[in-house]
UniProtKB/TrEMBL annotation:
The keyword Repeat applies. This is Serine/threonine-protein phosphatase 6 regulatory ankyrin repeat subunit B-like. It comes from Branchiostoma floridae. SMART domains: ANK. The gene is LOC118406053. ANK repeats lie at residues 30-62, 63-95, 96-128, 129-161, 162-185. Residues 1-30 are annotated as: Disordered. InterPro entries: Ankyrin-SOCS_Box (IPR050663), Ankyrin_rpt (IPR002110), Ankyrin_rpt-contain_sf (IPR036770). SUPFAM superfamilies: Ankyrin repeat (SSF48403). Keywords: ANK repeat, Repeat. It comes from the Eukaryota. It holds the Pfam family Ank_2.
């Protein structure tokens, strides 16, 4: 049994067991801390207790992921807000250079994307292969996420290391509604810039 299975898997409070520096910073064979697991599950009370007990908010696991990455991947807005309020790095990247926006885009969570953008996440930050969050969202075909990113100024013309844009990703994977949205927005941007 891993240290992570008790009390976090039972959604117990567990606060008395983690309210010390030793318990808050223990890691498993993958470099996961209790904070990583609590963030993954959105357990805000446990996150708060771990942080009070000395857990390092920006500690990375073997994949380079922080607790904020895990909360973001799983759409736990309360945990995201709590972690950001105590100094979690909005610009954190994992070993694949994925930002928090990349994680949210890959998992189709437009609410988390809006939250991260409002908090200062760099919308056109590039990750592995120079892909942006818009590339990721276009590849997965999530129109709502693409819409949020474009409405917040994501660069439709951003190219990955192969010269492909989000349009290429949407077309390649047959995501017609995303492709239509991107083409409409690109045309609108072209018309608007022609007026200047």
């Amino acid at each position: 049994m891993s240290f992570l299975t008790t009390p976090l898997d039972n959604n117990d409070d567990g606060c008395s067991k983690v309210n010390n520096r030793e318990g808050a910073s223990t890691v498993d064979e993958n470099g996961h801390t209790k904070l990583h697991k609590a963030a993954e599950k959105g357990q805000c009370d446990i996150i708060a207790a771990l942080l009070k007990g000395g857990a390092k908010v920006n500690k990375q696991d073997k994949l380079g992921m922080t607790a904020l990455h895990y909360a973001t991947e799983n759409g736990h807005t309360g945990a995201i807000e709590l972690l950001l309020n105590v100094g979690a790095d909005i610009g954190a990247t994992d070993k694949k250079k994925r930002t928090l926006l990349h994680c949210a885009a890959e998992n189709g969570n437009s609410q988390v994307i809006e939250m991260l953008i409002k908090t200062g996440a760099e919308i056109d930050a590039t990750g592995e292969r120079d892909c942006t969050a818009l590339h990721c969202a276009s590849k997965t075909g999530n129109r709502a996420v693409v819409d949020v990113l474009v409405n917040n100024g994501a660069d439709i013309g951003a190219k990955d290391e192969d010269g492909c844009t989000a349009l290429h990703y949407a077309a390649e994977d047959g995501h017609c509604s995303v492709l239509e949205l991107l083409l409409d927005r690109a045309e609108k941007q072209r018309r608007d810039s022609a007026k200047l």
